[in-house]
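**User:**
Make up any protein.

**Assistant:**
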Amino acid sequence: DCALLLCEPCTKMHRRIPATVDHEVIPQETIKARGNRDLFQPRKHCSKHKSQELAFYCETCRTMICTACTVVDHRPGKGHNTVELPSVALAKKENLQRFMQQLN
């Protein structure tokens, strides 16, 4: 969650601190084996609900929101249309690819 490279003693301490105890810690070997630095990206958290990760997109408001926001401020059926972020990201990617093809 913090996107930090930590030595073993610091990793152990990171797992004990109350504020970071629920963070996902990925061993450096796993990152190297996958050859994927995307795992090393910090997760985005809600500005209103600091402990909540952004997981949805409100199409009505055109903003990323957390689970708590879907219940409190962006309730589906109350003028808001919320969609899971991965599906929105895929749709946006496909739209960009179509646009790029039209340019060529």
In short: The first helix runs from residue 8 to 16. DSSP finds four helices and three strands in the chain.
